[in-house]
Amino acid sequence: VLGRGGFGEVVAGFYQRTPAAIKLFIADLTDENRDAIALEARVHWAVQARCPAHVLQLYGLLLPGSGPQDKPCVVMELAAGTLRDLIHASSTIPRPQLLAVVVPLLAQLAMALWYMHDRGVAHCDVKPGNVFVVLTAAGLARIKIGDFGLTRVAADEGDGASARPRRPRAH
């Protein structure tokens, strides 16, 4: 288990032989919550199409009847951690090494946000827990943004993402 929240848990798995994070939602979601999850996935795909290098990749959405244990789930790129994790670990890392890691990541975050805004995407919920660190094949740390539940996307004809998603409500 990589993490737990009010709507379920995130576990490590595979998607087409690629390591992936699988977000398993609680089984008793309301229709409204399932619709909100589906809308957030559509917005994520629209943002991903506009900003592929800066967005945690969403591989798929499985609604009840097709996911593990018959739970709705979202399958996405597996990250090494988040900026929040790095902040919590910062007390154990010597300052020069910490700065050597953090400054380039913050520069990447600034570029990613500029790139997204330039393409009509406003995330509206940027915080350390939504900024993911992904390791490249060369072992370099790369920032990717995730959690598009509050994102606004400027309408393009046919992209279906101009609506603002609603947050699912926990029971």
Descriptive report:
There is one protein chain. With 171 residues, the protein is of the alpha+beta class. The chain is built from 3 helices and 10 strands, in the order βββαβββααββββ. The strands form 3 sheets. Strands 1-2-3-5-4 form a 5-stranded antiparallel β-sheet, covered by helices on one side. A 3-stranded antiparallel β-sheet has the order 6-8-9. A two-stranded antiparallel ribbon has the order 7-10. The radius of gyration is 16 Å and the shape is globular. The model is unreliable at 159-171 (pLDDT under 50).
The portion of residues forming beta strands comes to: 25-35%
What level of helicity do the residues show?
Answer: 25-40%
Radius of gyration: 16 Å
Overall 3D shape: globular
Q: Could you tell me how far the N terminus lies from the C terminus, measured between alpha carbons in angstroms?
A: 21 Å
Major β-sheet, in short?
A: 5 strands, antiparallel
Q: What's the pLDDT, averaged over the residues?
A: 84
The total beta strand count reads 10
Counting DSSP H or I runs of 4 or more residues, the number of helices is: 3
Q: Ranges with pLDDT <50 over ≥5 residues?
A: 159-171
| SSE order, one letter for each helix or strand | EEEHEEEHHEEEE
> What multimeric state do the chains show?
single chain
Structural class: alpha+beta
Give the strand line-up of the largest sheet.
Answer: 1-2-3-5-4
